[in-house]
Amino acid sequence: MKDNKEKNTVVGTYQNSKNFGFVVPDDTSLGTDIFISKKNKNKAKNNQKVLVKITKYPEKKKNAEGNIIEVIGNVCKDYNSYDLQVLAPIYKNRNGIYAINDHLQKLWNPKSPSKKEIEGNEGIYREKDKVIQLSNMKDESVFNGDIGIIDRIKLLGNKELYIDYDGNLVKYTKSMLQNFTLGYAISIHKSQGSEFDTVLIPFTFDYRKMLYRKLIYTGVTRCKKKLILVGDINALEQAIRNNQEQKRRTSLKLFLENGIL
């Protein structure tokens, strides 16, 4: 319990009940959910990501108790998708890029009768969504990592989708939808070589394998004007201390040395 007591703030998901609530921590090492009294919920809503200050640690069969000091989802409400770029290290899990994109699409570009939408491999795309190109399309002057906005969707006849890449309007047929994905949140690796006015990077122990200094340095140096770090400060501190990046296991060097390739 000594190590856990050094973590007086944790990130988790708020679950609401009638007269109280509790937070399910992202870092499972605490070993318990955190009880939140009604007066200490800080206007958090069910399933919102929150930052909790622990006021009482678990004892025997009693849960930890705490106060919600920040609703992390509210940070993005002060911005729009054009002003802010979210960067994260991994795609899958509850705090990965796919989940963040789904949340931010609902926040910044919710379903509307005035906006057409189409289903793709990675979910729903609708007009005015922010997207990122995943492959090179040299004939259209669009390249891997370019960010654009869905200008319009044609649903009658042959389905088509048009994306505006800073004035370059590119047409996609239904069979080409795998060439892009939502771009409200993108990977830190994808962001290399790019700059954004405002960058937001979440930190959670769900990113444990990717919490290392070099990757975090790449992320924080993408911003030109403002950097926002949200989440678990303990996860950030671990990343800063860790100078051992995740090594990719490959036999490519062996193949090249032996003339196999």
Question: Could you walk me through the main structural features you see in this protein, from its secondary elements to its overall organization?
Answer:
There is one protein chain. The chain is α+β, with helices and mostly antiparallel strands. The protein is built from six helices and 16 strands. The protein has helices at 2-5, 97-108, 188-191, 213-220, 233-241, 252-257; strands at residues 9-16, 20-25, 34-37, 49-56, 64-71, 84-88, 117-120, 123-126, 130-133, 147-154, 160-165, 168-173, 180-182, 185-187, 196-203, 223-231. Strands 1-2-3-5-4 form a five-stranded mixed β-barrel. A five-stranded antiparallel beta sheet has the order 12-11-10-9-13. The N and C termini lie far apart (53 Å).
Question: Separation of termini?
Answer: 53 Å
Count all strands and give the number.
16
State the order of secondary-structure elements, H for helix, E for strand. Answer: HEEEEEEHEEEEEEEEHEHEHH
Overall spatial form: globular
Please outline the major beta sheet. Answer: 5 strands, mixed, barrel
- Extract low-pLDDT stretches: 1-5
What structural class results from the helix and strand content? alpha+beta
* Assembly classification: single chain
